[in-house]
Amino acid sequence: MLSTFMNINLKSLFLTARSYNMKPLTLVLFCLLLISGKVSAQFGTLSPEAKISLITVAPGNELYSGFGHSVLWVSDPMQGLDRAYNYGTFSFETGNFYVKFLRGTLPYSLSVGPLYQQAAYWQAENRSIKEEVLNLSASQKQKLYNFLENNYLPENRLYQYKFFFDNCSTRMVTALKAACGDSLEFPGYTHEKRSFRQWIDKYAYKQNPWADFGMDLAIGAPSDEVATAEQATFLPDNLSAAFRDSKIKIGGQTLPLVASQKDIFVAQPVDNAELITPMIFFWVLAGLVLAFTYWQTKKNKVDFTLDKILFGFAGVIGWFILLLWFGTNHGVTAFNYDILWAFPLWMPLIFFISPNKKPSWFQFLLIFYGFLLLCATGNLLKHNLVVIPILLILIIRVYYMNNSLSKIPQNG
User: How far apart are CA 137 and CA 292, in angstroms?
Assistant: First the structure.
């Protein structure tokens, strides 16, 4: 009878079932059974030998791979299935790729392929690969497989990627909860608490301190919120630990979610240490600026070329921060208080002064900016400490400009 109802719509299914004079409860159960059978038939039925594993890939050297990766792997030798579900796929051929990437509107996609093909790529990048086999019942495996296959349908596979809240790792949790429901006890990552910014620093600084500094400049106050235990699983390593801490109910028993684990590939140790980090660079620059300013003051030199470079650059950064704040959909780039020192109007206002004249309003601009720098120091505890020498540089030059302006004839 199941094949009779396989290709008919839900309404005709219900009417046909009623023709058998079933009682209401039996009727509902009958319809649910047929619908479940239809879904299983659409995507295939897993055999008792099937297994589903969480695959965790260690961070790579590139910025886009610096936080690791997660995929779900469905393997069924009886059915010849080898399907690794990867939610981290995007295409460089997407129209206006860089504009969409910057604005946070670049579509990401679920892709599916044999694990060995993807694993070969990760091994070539010298990234460790770990498998954790999930302890699921046959019914839970089938539901999870159906969920993943339904997500892979052309109309469902695209989604808007959100680094903190909707990425390759968080989608693993969504899929598992959809398949297991109340039988899953998922505590999230409970081993430590960090803000989103601090989680980024933990990973990005190891891979590329300059990229870490750039990301710190780009993200705003929302990233300084402490991530909840579940939110912290946006990082693959944290997701793996959370899976190991989770429990699953099967046949009246509460069992560990992870049945077993093994290393598929162990990376070779590599020293990626940067010789010149942002901290070293800006402290050296601060020392040079201090020495140069002292020399200018002692020699009574009035020249604003250095200031035009420094404050002009700060202004450009400020405009970029405004663009990320108001012109993108990232969410976490809003309320960025780096705009206090990266004052956008420095570009072009800094070019209005010269050793020969000054605008009448420039003194008030310096006083106002000094106040902004004072406010910026209050945000240091939550921020990348590289900002300390940057603020020192700007304070030194504000002091120099303020003293030098008294020697310049005013021009209204």
Answer: 71
